[in-house]
UniProtKB/TrEMBL annotation, chain A:
PANTHER family, per database record: INDOLEPYRUVATE OXIDOREDUCTASE SUBUNIT IORB (PTHR43854:SF1)
Domain called Pyruvate/ketoisovalerate oxidoreductase catalytic: residue spans: 11-191
Organism phylogeny: Archaea, Methanobacteriati, Methanobacteriota, Methanomada group, Methanobacteria
Keyword terms of this UniProt record: Oxidoreductase, Pyruvate
Source organism of the structure: Methanosphaera cuniculi
Full protein name: Indolepyruvate ferredoxin oxidoreductase subunit beta
Subunit note: Heterodimer of the IorA and IorB subunits.
SUPFAM superfamilies reported for this sequence: Pyruvate-ferredoxin oxidoreductase, PFOR, domain III
EC number(s) stated in the UniProt entry for this protein: 1.2.7.8
Top-rank taxon, per record: Archaea
From TrEMBL, chain B:
Domain 4Fe-4S ferredoxin-type: 563-586, 592-620
Record note on cofactor: Binds 2 [4Fe-4S] clusters. In this family the first cluster has a non-standard and varying [4Fe-4S] binding motif CX(2)CX(2)CX(4-5)CP.
One MF term in the entry's GO annotations: metal ion binding
Protein name: Indolepyruvate oxidoreductase subunit IorA
Function of the molecule: Catalyzes the ferredoxin-dependent oxidative decarboxylation of arylpyruvates.
Record field: catalytic activity: indole-3-pyruvate + 2 oxidized [2Fe-2S]-[ferredoxin] + CoA = (indol-3-yl)acetyl-CoA + 2 reduced [2Fe-2S]-[ferredoxin] + CO2 + H(+)
Keyword terms: 4Fe-4S, Electron transport, Iron, Iron-sulfur, Metal-binding, Oxidoreductase, Pyruvate, Transport
């Protein structure tokens, strides 16, 4: 089997931590898993993406058009990742935008969120959109946004990992004092996409 | 996994490890006594982990002042009978090369491994050079692991070769292998107990011409012996599928080949190479004889391809050899699964493979270039320099040689404070050249504290002795920031985490005879602008030390700032100077209203930038 998850967003959104939780859970369930992450210049306000492949693949790079899930922590970054997707890729997108810090120096405006969602739904049959920042704030802390997104991913029917195992791995990787907030954000993200 | 787990993990455990974490585990399982590095992405995390566990693991660890020093420390220790480890990014080998070439001649009593992480596609580097050339130039055995498990296992194997043949060895990774996470099964860790050796072979390591000639002869003999090992090494394996098309591949490139061959069920034979210098001639010859067409898949330069062609020529084998040199594969950048598919199609041996990717969006997307952090002291230094230069109303462009670090981001508008960049320390050397070659163009160059210690001092001595005229700004943010925050000789902590003498940049600069030396907190921008103006008028080498800690290590002070910074909308005259000239990411302009968002760390520079004092500090009660 090969199950490919492409995660994208901005430095500081907790993308690598989320990816590690998925990867470590896959190992718990006796899957092979490979993942690619880019460090370095990308930490300074730039784009961050990780690629996770659960199954027998050896390379950590997802072939264009073969992502099973696109987990986009930021709407514009979802559009930037379209080449990794095909019509059957399930998209889980956070609708809360992060404007580039250099937007005032650029000729372009940030695109309209509705226009972004329309573009995504025109290219993928199933798109779950949610304001994961709001969900996280309601759950108790804005920084739990990444776990709301992870909850959204777990709501996707094809997602191969068990929720109980994911929650165990969350416990091993997240600070004890914030685990309840993170569980709550996870649950709310899950429910937002499940209905 | 947390850092201590790399040390504490029992054997036969499956863990989700980064390539660089697996490297540390390999070092621990191999019983290394000494490790030295200069931080460089994509190898930096190895040092971060060793910094945290060196004491518990009974390993001596240092952040050397540069890569050449790191290799010298490791070589001398290996000549004293210890097992040593040094590691760096690809361009670090350029700095280390002088000693590396001779280290191979000298050999080792213990064992010595150098891990070099190449950066195809230059994710965080100024070039994409290929370390495998160095192994050939120096006659040093080289290994190319494909994944974290192989990094760990090859380290142990490489040390055995180093031990057996008394020769330094190199492991070459790439970004996608060092920064790949995958399942790693741990081996046995026995805590290193050998902290000291003895240097016994006095006089044997002195390559004066007569001895160097003998050493070279011996080295060539060793390589001939080691070639026999690489021919039969388990690291080099033929995966025979009874096809007449073969792929020779190594390192990260192997992964893409394996996935595409598997996915499309292609009928090919694969020669997977892990022990690649000396190149396994007999094995490659056998592979060539059994395949009519051979594709060589490697990142970055066509090194195995040319070696393979040479073997075909030597033995008059008629196999067609494809790769970079006939355009089947690109000569630049890292590979991807899609590039491998294109190569297979280019060969014309396979049917067009089915793909169904979405096309890119036609909506224009704003970019997210890397920028200096909100409140970064470098921004203040650049802003002030730009103000000082602009106040001169010159009809020529000013010249701003920059260096390797976060401050390379000064290239961006509105600062435009990096318009010449070569390598570590080159800002200073290049300033000397511009000083002699140009006449009326002011020169202000920038270098960080760590980079100054690394390679900035010799060219500054050159500048004084040869009577240059330029201003050097040493951006002393009290840490090696770009690679994630490692210590350097200016910091009172060493690689073991112990207290250490901090080298004073100011004393050092003064000691070589520079008279214009000003140390200032760059957040005081108005003073900073005045110092730049004075420096620009100075006839000689002037040094400004802009000293203020990086936000990454200044969290306690930042948290203690019990005020907020706000724009008084009634007083704002919408001149947009804060947006257009300072360009701090915390200051935003939406619908003609300037505001400061929650990313602000209250450095206060914008208060001085505002011409009408509309940006204000407001105390908050905590």
């Amino acid at each position: 089997m090969a199950y490919n998850i492409y995660i994208c967003g901005i430095g500081g959104q907790g993308i690598i931590k989320t990816s590690i939780v998925i990867g470590e859970t896959a190992i718990k369930e006796d899957y092979n898993v490979v993942m690619s992450e880019i460090h370095g210049m990308s930490q300074r306000g730039g784009v961050v993406s990780t690629e996770l492949k659960i199954g027998d693949d050896k390379s950590p790079i997802i072939q264009d058009g073969t992502a099973d899930i696109l987990l986009a922590f930021e709407p514009v970054e979802a559009l930037r990742a379209l080449e990794k997707t095909n019509r059957h890729t399930v998209c889980v997108v956070n609708t809360a935008p992060i404007y580039p810090s250099t937007i005032n120096q650029q000729d372009l405006d940030y695109p309209d969120i509705d226009e972004i969602l329309e573009e995504l739904t025109s290219k993928m049959d199933v798109v779950y959109s949610m304001d994961a920042n709001k969900i996280a704030t309601r759950a108790g802390h804005p920084l739990s946004m990444n776990m709301a997104m992870l909850g959204g991913a777990c709501a996707v029917e094809s997602f191969p990992l068990e929720i109980n195992d994911i929650k165990d791995t969350m416990k091993e990787n997240l600070p004890p004092k914030s685990i309840d907030v993170n569980y709550e954000a996870f649950k709310m993200g899950y429910e937002s996409c499940k209905k | 996994m947390n850092i201590k787990e790399i040390l504490d993990q029992e054997s036969d455990q499956k863990r989700f490890m980064l390539g660089n974490e697996a490297a540390v585990r390999g070092v621990l399982e191999s019983g290394v006594s000494l490790a030295a590095t200069y931080p460089g992405t994509p190898s930096s995390e190895i040092g971060d982990i060793l910094f945290n566990i060196a004491k518990d693991a009974n390993i001596y660890f240092e952040f050397s002042s540069n890569e050449k020093v790191a290799i010298e420390v490791a070589a001398a220790a290996a000549c004293s009978g210890l097992r040593t480890f040094s590691f760096m990014k690809h361009v670090g080998v350029n700095v280390a090369a002088d000693s590396l070439m001779t280290a191979a001649y000298m050999g080792v009593e213990g064992s010595m491994l150098i891990l070099v992480a190449d950066d195809p596609s230059t994710f965080s580097s100024q070039n994409e050079q290929d370390t495998r050339h160095f192994a050939r130039q120096a006659n040093i055995p080289l290994f190319e692991p494909s994944n974290p498990q192989e990094i760990k296992d090859y380290i142990q194997y490489a040390y055995e070769i180093s031990d057996k043949f008394d020769i330094p060895v190199i492991i070459r990774t790439t970004t996608r292998v060092s920064h790949m996470r995958a399942v790693v099964e741990t081996g046995e860790y026995n805590k290193n107990t050998k902290t000291h050796g003895e240097y016994e072979n006095i006089g044997l390591h002195v390559p004066v011409p007569e001895i160097a000639r003998k050493m070279h002869e011996e080295l060539v003999g060793k390589i001939a012996e080691i070639r026999k090992v690489s021919n039969t090494s388990p690291l080099n394996q033929i995966i025979d599928n009874d096809a007449n098309v073969g792929i020779i591949t190594s390192g990260g490139a192997y992964n893409y080949v394996a996935d595409i061959v598997n996915k499309y069920d292609l009928n090919v034979n694969i020669l997977k190479l892990g022990f690649t210098h000396p190149y396994p001639e007999d094995l490659v010859r056998e592979f060539l004889e059994n395949n009519k067409e051979v594709l060589v898949v490697e990142e970055v330069d066509p090194i195995h391809e040319i070696e393979t062609q040479a073997i075909a020529g030597k033995y008059h084998i008629n196999t067609n050899i494809h790769g970079k040199r006939d355009g089947t594969l690109p000569e630049i950048f890292e590979y991807t699964p899609d590039i491998i598919i294109n190569a297979f199609e280019n060969l014309g041996l396979f049917e067009v493979l089915k793909r169904e990717a979405n096309t890119p969006t036609l909506i224009p997307l704003p970019n997210r270039p890397a920028t200096l952090c909100a409140g970064c002291p470098h921004r203040a230094s650049f802003y002030a320099a730009r103000q000082a230069i602009d106040s001169l109303n010159l009809d020529v462009e000013s010249i701003h040689p920059s260096d390797i670090g976060c401050y390379t981001l000064g290239i961006a508008p509105p600062y435009n404070m990096a318009n010449f960049l070569m390598s570590m320390g080159a800002s200073v050397g290049a300033s000397c050249g511009f000083s002699k070659a140009t006449e009326n163009q002011p020169i202000i160059s920038f270098i960080g504290d760590s980079t100054f210690f690394h390679a900035g001092i010799p060219p500054l001595i050159n500048a004084v002795h040869n009577k240059m005229k330029f201003t050097l700004v040493i951006l002393d943010n009290r840490i090696t920031a770009m690679t994630g925050g490692q210590t350097n000789p200016g910091i009172p902590i060493d690689g073991m985490g112990d207290e250490a003498p901090a080298i004073s940049i100011e004393d050092l600069v003064k000691s070589i005879g520079i008279e214009f030396v000003e140390t200032i907190n760059p957040l005081n921008v108005n003073e900073m602008i005045q110092i730049y103006k004075d420096a620009l008028e100075y006839d000689g080498v002037s040094v400004i030390i802009a000293k203020y800690p990086c936000n990454l290590i200044n969290k306690t002070e930042i948290r203690s700032r019990n005020y907020i910074i706000q724009v008084d909308q009634d007083e704002c005259i919408h001149c947009n100077k804060c947006i257009d000239k300072l360009a701090c990411p915390s200051i935003t302009l939406v619908d003609d209203k300037i505001s400061i968002d929650q990313t602000c760390i209250k450095c206060g520079v914008c208060i001085d930038v505002c011409p009408v004092s509309a940006i204000k500090k407001e105390e908050v009660n905590q």
